[in-house]
Specification:
Helix 7 crosses helix 9, helix 19 crosses helix 23 and helix 34 packs parallel to helix 36. The strands form 4 sheets. Strands 2, 3, 5, 6 and 7 form a 5-stranded mixed sheet that branches. The chain starts with 11 loop residues before the first helix and ends in a 12-residue tail after the last helix. It is mainly α and about 950 residues long.
């Protein structure tokens, strides 16, 4: 920010003007017997103020006492007008009240000018202080109006007798706490409900609040000998100038549900209660939030913004406002539109974006990754520059203008007041900022290749042929889609699909633009036919959801990436078709924008659930599912693009599942506690163990979860403390059932996971939830070797940490017991051979990646056999549950050679890579044999044999 000039650089004409006005002010002080001592540079600061503002000169000449010692203290001291308005007494006489309000406004406005031009406040502080001034004026004027109405007509009350008070909502820059010096104030007035006043001359509430509104506006906006207090604009109310000055909440809600337009949604982003019944005002905001912020990602906001921008551009052209700091190209409004567009699109799902001021909103957009840091920096610098310049233009003569003055003297005053050597360097910096903003706005409003760029004419013709059913397979093949029969057929059927025929006119227009662009995008992918077939299915799925059509219509990068993903991965394509919300992840697939650690994922789930307007279990489960799908989908994109390897992806998928299970356990515990109360004792006494691929941190994209539920048996007979108490046994049984049900129950966003609990003690014949003692006894006395193999991968994934520690101790003691290695090897080998015989789908040309010879299970079983046989000697082997870490642990204690460990590491990573790739292509984990794949498996088999295991079934004897 440029500072005030250190030396005089003004022209002779300007110097003469300042000298003359300073002399006039000093004369007024002498006449009013106001002592003025030039301590701390007071004279120089007054001269700077007179340089910048004719308004300040007029106020000081008429009210020289503002330069008395207490007045100077007021100018120097921080603290907004609200603190000083509290002690201001208003006369019951209307004329005297209006005079007092105006004098107060003038004094406070002078303070704003003085502090701004002398760099005592930065531009943000000046805007906030201006907003605080007008809030204070509104509150004082409203209190006076309320008192006057109550004296005449009593207090307004609802039919139930509850007092009703006016709600004053500030919009625009007042709502955003960033009001400029001479702005009007945009207000909407409302009240809670109908009814009537309780005075002897009773009024219907509608008439009562209309009269109160008129009184409020008169106090502020009527011109008197002292001027006006504030310019009040009520045109943002429902139906504009044709609407009633104040409406009850129910009428407001009905209007916005039925009549609300896009520009009104943008306006409500900044709305907030600024006077009157602020609690009721916040209730009204909550009521109208669904109108402002959609539950889904709302890319229809682009169309609304374009319409508003077109209207503004027409006004700029009609009134020759090209140089207007607010509305002209590269002006303040374009910066606001860029930020508000992001808020409109994403604010329904991300409450962090529901902030009102431009700078706070820009900061959140940047922090959440929606606006790049470089763009945010550019916009922030331009905004602060433009708002500071706009303020100085208005401070000059207290005029509601956004245009630079034409005369040279005024321009010189503004430039010198802002610390420039003259108008030319200021003009150059203004042009630089405006050009930069214009460029950014154009990029946001119309991305390169967006809907302004038409699809290739040949693809438009293909779509036209599909409309009239003349599109043939040969035409599609000639266009690059081979074979062409199926794609020609689905394109011919698309215009006649019921979902397409039911489209609105606007959605139909989007579809006409979109389909040719999708054809072109699919052609450019690695697999045009599968890509286009899946894209058409997606169009049918979202045909009645205009926001998703708008996303694809508006975002060419999303179209191209979507076509590529649909060509590469059938699995990811199916996920998008089933959950179109994932389109946003296609548009913004950055892996660095998602939480990857379990703690971060858990924190993000808490944040996501905290954003919900309705906190009920069904909605929370749906939101958890949407979150899980989004993270899993982005992990799939990262793996598919080669930005994450298989081992890393599987570990992250397991971390995601762990966080989701913990969230569901927390939700189920909350709901059960609400019904039956809590059980006595510290913690919940409930733990969830993850087994299998979850416990081993090797989860696939479509894996189920192997879970075992355990509870603290000392609480089995105690009763819960709720209104409907139950004993501990039933409490834990119901908790486990609820967790099971919620994890696998279908929602609008699909189901979270398939859950398998057969690894619990006694398998499917056992109780769903076992006590700690029962779990311990079973593992020590009745579990089979294969169950101990499973226990090797078990770990706490959710629930009571102290109970988890106890379970960890049981695990270590059971698995660390002395065992005969030869017997372990034989039992593990026998079980492996049996599983292979029952489940292996390998043949001469294909390998079952999991069950085949040298496959993933061979690696897993040999590691588990080694640990079971040797954990008594090497207890550190029990510190991990993941296969990759077990390989390292066995190597570190000398049970594997470096060569053997390397062989298993490479085979494990490569086989897992192929297995996850199969899943993404919706193929079973059976891969075509290749020399490289056979070599990997042969290496594993050699390690198995060298370690003394035999995983091949003994030949049958005749």
């Amino acid at each position: 920010m440029n500072t005030a000039p250190a030396q005089r650089r003004e022209s002779e004409e300007l110097r003469a003007l300042i000298d003359s006005r300073y002399a006039d002010v000093m004369a007024a002080c002498r006449a009013a017997r106001v002592p003025l001592h030039d301590d701390a540079g007071v004279a120089e600061r007054i001269r700077r103020t007179l340089l910048a503002s004719d308004f300040a000169f007029d106020v000081l000449r008429r009210q020289p006492k503002l330069l008395a010692p207490d007045g100077l203290e007021r100018l120097r001291t921080a603290g907004d007008a609200g603190t000083r308005s509290a002690t201001l007494a208003l006369s019951s006489d209307e004329a005297e009240c209006m005079a007092t309000l105006r004098r107060f406004r003038h004094a406070e406005a002078l303070r704003l000018v003085f502090r701004d031009v002398n760099d005592l406040d930065n531009v943000g502080e000046t805007l906030a202080s201006t907003s605080a001034l007008y809030e204070a004026l509104l509150e004082m004027a409203l209190r006076w109006s309320q008192h006057a109405m109550a004296e005449r007509y009593g207090k307004a009350r609802s039919p139930e007798g509850v007092e009703q008070r006016m709600v004053v909502l500030g919009f625009g820059k007042l709502g955003g706490n960033e009001l400029n010096f001479s702005s009007d104030i945009d207000l909407v007035l409302a009240y809670g409900s109908g009814g009537q006043s309780d005075g002897p001359r009773s009024l219907d509430n509608g008439e009562y609040f209309i009269r109160e509104a008129r009184q409020l506006v008169r106090l502020l906006a009527e011109t008197t000998a002292e001027g006006i207090c504030a310019r009040v604009d009520l045109r943002l109310r429902p139906f504009g100038n044709a609407g009633r000055l104040a409406l009850p909440f129910a009428a407001m809600e009905q209007y916005y549900q039925r009549e609300g337009r896009d520009w009104e949604r943008y306006a409500w982003i900044k709305a907030r209660p600024v006077a009157g019944d602020r609690t009721a005002g916040r209730e009204l905001q909550d009521m109208l939030r669904p109108f402002v912020y959609r539950r889904y990602l709302d890319y229809t906001a682009f169309a609304g913004l374009r319409e508003m921008k077109s209207l503004i551009d027409a006004e700029v052209a009609r009134k020759d406002l090209a140089g207007n700091l607010k509305l002209g190209p590269g002006g303040i409004r374009e910066i606001e539109f860029i930020v508000q567009l992001t808020q409109m699109i994403r604010g329904g799902r991300d409450p962090a974006l529901r902030v009102r001021g431009l700078l706070p909103a820009l900061q959140v957009c940047e922090a959440r990754g929606h606006i790049p840091a470089s763009r945010a920096k550019l916009l922030r610098e331009a905004y602060l520059f433009l708002r500071r310049l706009e303020n100085r233009v208005q401070m000059l003569r207290d005029a509601q203008t956004h245009d630079i003055p034409d005369d040279e003297l005024s321009r010189e005053r503004i430039a010198l007041g802002l610390g420039y050597d003259g108008w030319k360097p200021l003009e150059a910096e203004l042009a630089r900022h405006r050009d930069a903003v214009s460029e950014e706005f154009a990029a946001v409003l119309m991305p390169q290749g967006g809907n302004a760029t038409g699809a290739p004419a040949a693809d438009v013709e293909l779509w036209a042929a599909a409309h009239d059913e003349s599109l043939s397979a040969g035409t599609m093949e000639a266009s690059g889609f081979v074979p062409g029969e199926e794609v020609a057929d689905v394109l011919r059927k698309l215009p006649r699909a019921s979902s397409v025929r039911a489209m609105s006119a606007r959605s139909g227009e989007r579809l006409e633009r979109l389909v040719p662009q999708l054809i072109a995008a699919a052609r450019g992918s690695v697999a045009p036919v599968p890509s286009l077939l899946r894209l058409v299915r997606l169009v049918q799925a979202v045909a009645r959801r205009s926001s998703y059509l708008a996303l694809l219509d508006e975002q060419p990068n999303a179209r191209r990436r979507l076509a590529a993903v649909f060509a590469d991965s059938a699995f990811l394509a199916e996920r998008v078709i089933a959950q179109p919300l994932l389109l946003d992840d296609v548009l913004d697939p950055r892996i660095d924008q998602i939480p990857l650690r379990r703690a971060d994922i858990s924190a993000e789930i808490v944040r996501v659930l905290g954003a919900l307007d309705e906190r009920d279990a069904e909605r929370e489960l749906e939101r958890i599912n949407e979150f899980r799908s989004s993270i899993a989908f982005r992990l799939g994109l990262a793996f598919n693009d080669g930005r994450a390897d298989a081992t890393t992806t599987a570990r992250r998928l397991a971390g995601l599942a762990e966080a989701v299970v913990a969230a569901v356990v927390g939700l189920a515990t909350r709901e059960l506690t609400a019904q039956h109360g809590r059980l006595p004792g510290a913690g919940t006494g409930f733990a969830v163990l993850g087994y299998g691929s979850l416990g081993g941190e090797e989860l696939g994209f479509a894996s189920d979860l192997d879970l075992v539920f355990v509870y603290d048996g000392t609480r089995s007979s105690v009763m819960s403390d709720g209104a409907r108490p139950v004993d501990g046994n039933r409490w834990y049984q119901r908790l486990a059932q609820r967790v099971m049900h919620w994890l696998s129950a279908p929602t609008h966003a699909g189901r979270l996971y398939e859950v398998d609990t057969r690894l619990r003690p006694d398998g499917s014949k056992g109780l769903l939830v076992a006590s700690l003692d029962a779990f311990d006894a079973y593992q020590r006395s009745r579990a089979w070797t294969w169950e101990h193999q499973a226990l090797l991968r078990a770990r706490l994934v959710a629930g009571d940490a102290r109970l988890g520690d106890a379970l960890g101790k049981v695990r270590r003691e059971v698995l660390g017991a002395e065992r005969d290695p030869a017997r372990v090897y034989a039992e593990v080998g026998s079980m492996r051979a049996r599983w292979r015989q029952e489940r292996d789908r390998s043949d001469a040309t294909h390998l079952d990646l999991k069950q085949g010879h040298g496959g993933l299970l061979d690696i897993e079983f040999v590691l588990q056999g080694m640990v079971l046989a040797h954990a008594a000697r090497f207890p550190a082997l029990l510190d991990t549950t993941a296969n990759a870490s077990l390989i390292d642990a066995l190597r570190d204690v000398g049970l594997l050679t470096v060569e053997q460990a390397d062989t298993l590491h490479v085979a494990h990573a490569d086989l897992l890579q192929v297995a996850l790739t199969c899943t993404l292509d919706l193929r079973s984990r059976v891969a075509e044999r290749t020399p490289a794949l056979d070599a990997l498996c042969a290496g594993v088999e050699k390690v198995v044999l060298d370690l003394g295991f035999s995983f091949r079934a003994a030949p049958e004897t005749v």
